[in-house]
Structures
1.
Amino acid sequence: MDYQLSPLEVKMQQDLAAFCRTEIAPRAKMLDSSSRPGVCTYMKENLKMLFRGGCLEAGHIGDVIDLIAVYLAGEEIAKACPATFLSARASTFLCAGALRLFGAPDQKQRYIPDLMKAELVGAFAYSEEQAGSDMAAITTVAHKDGKTWRLNGDKNIVINAPIADVFLVLAYSEKDAGAESGMSIFICDKGAEGSRIGEPVETMGLRGVPLAGISMNDCVAAGILGDTPGKGYEQVTRILTMGKVGIAALCVGIGTACTEISVKHAKERKAFGKPIGLYQDVGFRLADMFTINDLGRMLALRAAWAINTGEFEADILAASAKLFASEAVTKIANWGMQIFAGHGYVAGSDIERFYRDAKFGEICEGASEIQRSLIARSELDKFLQR
Amino acid sequence: MDFSLSQEQRMFRETVYRYGRDEIAPLCEEADLKGEFSFEIWRKLASFGILGLPLPEEFGGSAANILTCCLAGEALGHAGVDGGSLLAWGAHTYLCAHNIYAFGTEDQKRKYVPKLASGDWIGCMGLTEPGAGSDAASLSTTAVKKGDRYVLNGSKTFITNAPVADVMVVFANVNKARKHEGITAFIIEKGTPGLTTGKPFHKMGCKCSSTSEIFLADCEVPEENILGGEGKGWFIALSGVEWDRCTLLSPMLGAAINNLESCARYANERHQFGRPIRNFQAIQHRIADMKVFVEAVRLAVYRVASAKDNGQMLNPLQAAVSKVYAGDRGFDMASEAVQIFGGYGFMHEYPVERNFRDSKLAAIGGGTSDIMRMIVSRIMMM
């Protein structure tokens, strides 16, 4: 047992932190307040900057994904700009990562190098208006037209859709076979015949993320991920389980940023002759912010390690990390806002942006209610008398 | 990073768990109801070698590292051994016996440690006073040198094991002008003239540990009973904190696992409205929260333990996180366990009731949750 990061991991994290602090963080406010077309331009630039700063390849080696490194890099990007993290993650982890784990050799060769250099932007389209955690309820279907697969259906909110060059799309390739063996992930190139990207969607937080729906009307797919149909459910479940560590990175990154600026404010802002952080109401709140953020990070690293090593219950640990870190960060942002008070409530303050960004964690990729159900079922089943 | 346990560690944990479950846990309900220290449980812990776990073999111990000690604490709590008996063990082994081993002279070690390791003698540590809790530097017990002896005067309170202790490590100030630099630890044996203990307190939880005041009235202690040297008491007291934040919390982790398992079993078996209550989301979500708590508190406790085993300085932030989370969230989760059991949970015969009462101590003993927040906020504001 060793709870320490290796010197190499520490060095990598410090280097990425320094890069993100000077290059990415200063652009976060601009991304948040830009028009939708502006967001697309700036985010593409940010992804290229991340590549040049060495942030994108961390943890991605050959056919293997080292989730601890992915987590550490992710936390630093998210701390600097949560929206940039989410966009980069959709491209290099959800899209390129799925290709890395499940793609056929020619698919890997065609997309992964360019995705990792941000020459291409990737997107991962699985949820629909009536299908989130209830993945079996998707209505997008694919049928074979000669040698070509054609897709029909709508994906209502897809991260990176307005800027993406390649999409992974979850659809039924054989509806009658049921979710677990009737789904496939299709690869679709930008501008494919029959595809249409919708108007950019506006959101409460993470406004720097380019977001839109996709409509597919006999849309021509470039192929099936891994070339074998029927594996979509397994693939999407696996990548999204790993992805929970990424959402934890998003949350802990935002939590760290909130805590840091709150401490700074609590030192600088004086009331009745002393810094407000020396009052217990503020100081103890800072302690609570530190505590739950620190535990969120530990749970995320624990889950990352469990997935890396194929440990029993890795999926439950990932769900626990996502659940804990996302609920922690909404508390942290809320307390941070309380510490900044009027200074935080004005539009354009950093804590106001983080406050809006923070809520995403509890909602995305399996809301807290779903994570709890998953964790509870696993625990209860251990003690079921059959 | 490596979060795994070795095969040997897993087997050790399993062995301790089985022993605790089969040999000790069945005694705990009655002992807790009596609200007294149980010599029967004590002998069970002793005969299994638990009491000398971290002490070297030449002194009758097992030379276990801290992680192993935490595994034992977790396993016994998991097995359903009550928090009081495990607190008595912790105060005895870590705060008394290990302090004498770590800071004692060769003579002191030979005289006390083997008998403490075997459990023939019971040990305690007296730091807290009626007017000095977390503000331990302000303690008012004095020790005045008189020839080759020290005369101690003052009183201690909330001292775990005091009513049953044969050996006490007691802190007194030899020179109040020097404040914490005057604090000195003394080894005092039962029966020393001027030493008396109060009636055991009636406590809310952890009832099988016996707790009382210690009174020192012109209590004369030979100078060779100074532990670690004059003025070294403050350092000794602080070093106890490192044990406190991992080994003494590990039984709380174990109790949380015990609660989680008993709740999962109960939720599967208990039917209402024609279905097992596991089907209700309100029950499920409590179970999930308990599971997340177990995983998080385990990480917090073992992180402190693994750092100490690696010879690193105690990280005060990590120690405080461990304590405040185990204390505050642990109490909330223990309360949810009672809630799952409903009316049965309110009854003494269900361990969730005892675990609930015992769990409150983690937010109080060894520095309250408020003190932990104070420590963290001071570091953050530096």
2.
Amino acid sequence: MEETRRQFLKQSGVTVLLTGAAALAWDHLLAGEPEKAPNYKMADHWWALALDVEKCIGCGNCVRACKAENDVPLEPFYFRTWVERYHVTEEDPEHPQVDSPNGGYDGFPERYRAGDGSKNFFVPKLCNHCAHSPCVQVCPVGATFETPDGVVLVDKSYCLGCRYCVQACPYGCRFIDPRTQTVDKCSLCYHRITKGLTTACCETCPTGARTLGDLKDPRDPIHEFLSKNKVHVLKPQLATGSKAFYKGLDGTVR
Amino acid sequence: MDMESLLHAVQGFMYPNEIELQWSILIVLYPFITGLVAGAFILASLERVFNVEAVKPTYRLALLTALAFLLVAPLPLQLHLGHPERSFEMYLTPHTTSAMAMFGFVYLWYLMAVLVLEIWLDYRRDIVLLARQSRGWKKTLYRVLALGSDNLSERSLALDDKVGRFITVVGIPSAFLLHGYVGFIFGSIKANPWWSTPLMPIVFLFSAVVSGIALVMLMYMLVSWIRQTALDMRCLDTIARYFLYAFLIDFSLEMLDLVHRIYEADESFKTLDFMVHTKLYTSQVILQIVLGTVIPITLVSLTQLVTMTERARKSLYGISGVLALAGIFAMRWNVVIGGQLFSKSLLGYTTYKMGFATREGLLPAILLLVLPFVLLYVLVRLLPPWPEAAPAKEP
């Protein structure tokens, strides 16, 4: 009786302090297991990304947040998301100068001056969560797969580390995690989005240059984004069914 | 590798995850070795199926060479995998849309249903006789190899031959499958413009035939020299002629690919063209095209056009064979490594830095290329491929 009362008080104390969802998470944290998302139905969602090139300021918040949230190796060159800086001159638009120092993790050092007749802009990159993923197609054991809610994930306990998927991704979004010798990539923060949160990169973007959208939710602002803007996907000629929709994407970006 | 030295390797822009190469020299070995297997087998089938009697002296040697190399073929792949212990999952849960998932099945089919069976049927008479005539552990070994068979009647031997012939007929498309499939692994990757061409499987196939024929030709010359036996010049000339035919087809296909790329000049062309003129110049232009293709084709063509002494022909065949093998190794290198030196953004290039005594370095690659010759030595000792070494039937 005493024990039960103590438990009850402890639980209600935690609940009052942390609110419902966080209290649920706290239990799992104590138990050392990932939090479950009992109310999440995969069939009700179809995830996509809305990216606004004109809003990206190259601050690198997204890159840092992603690495911290998802335990991505810091060095040398492993990124689930990164930011590229484009410098396009009028004389030679076919050969843009592109850089992405440390994936934009530390921001970008000042390099180009405004008003010299060139175009300068940042392009946030991450897995496009393609609906016809070339990476998923080639995996010899099916360790990487498309979820019913439109996210490309990897089963690390099953991946052989053959790297065929790394070769097959046209966007350079995959790498081999040197600690596990298995492939790693953006999971669209699946552990967050299934609990009603947004991704770490979208959460920390100060300008709203990237937003997560649910195409199956009629009230989601992504519908307005797609209908009001001219949008483009990367490398459309490869017909990957990319679900990363860019607004204001320059033709020089690959 | 640390970030500083990695950055030095980059020219222009690479997507950050692309800077380190994914497929190393071990993956260069894989198509090289399977190509030798397919080529050696196809040479062996010439005698059996197409009745090219002249190449008979190399029939068994070609089969044993194919087996020795086939046994080594999966090793570079295993060594390369992040989790080799999980590779068996490819048999248990193959992903049907993956070209690579078929590797295990194609490999097993070719090894067990074609090569081992054909060799066994061809050697069954010898194995049974050796089991009867040897003593000690050798007797046990041959009895195991005989798989319980002891019948050497005319009828049973005729049946061996008939079934063996049927297997060779099945084996030719299987050999084509084995290597054409390896080409498909690369040719079907639409993300990579250097790989993505429907010609890839067929270019792989014909270069495989060339390399396999070159290898058996060289092995035949080497073995005859070691054993101090006379070379059958009719056999060698015939092999050289098939070598030339296969090489001409291979070269035409590769040039077709090149001309097509140059003429079409799509968005990837400038990037790839620059790569061929810089990072791949030595291995592609010098080694693969000039030394590895044009020169051997010219030399063997000379032997066809001009009357030469046996000695001169032998030297030219030898030189051409070695050059062709080097050229085809360079071709595999240019496909596998070359395909990873440029960025899929088409805006930059990276460098391949090969380790030496590392897991995927030069040393294991050399060992893996020596291993088939060790296996071949053992196979030749166990199952001598020369007719005079075959055991005589007891009265």
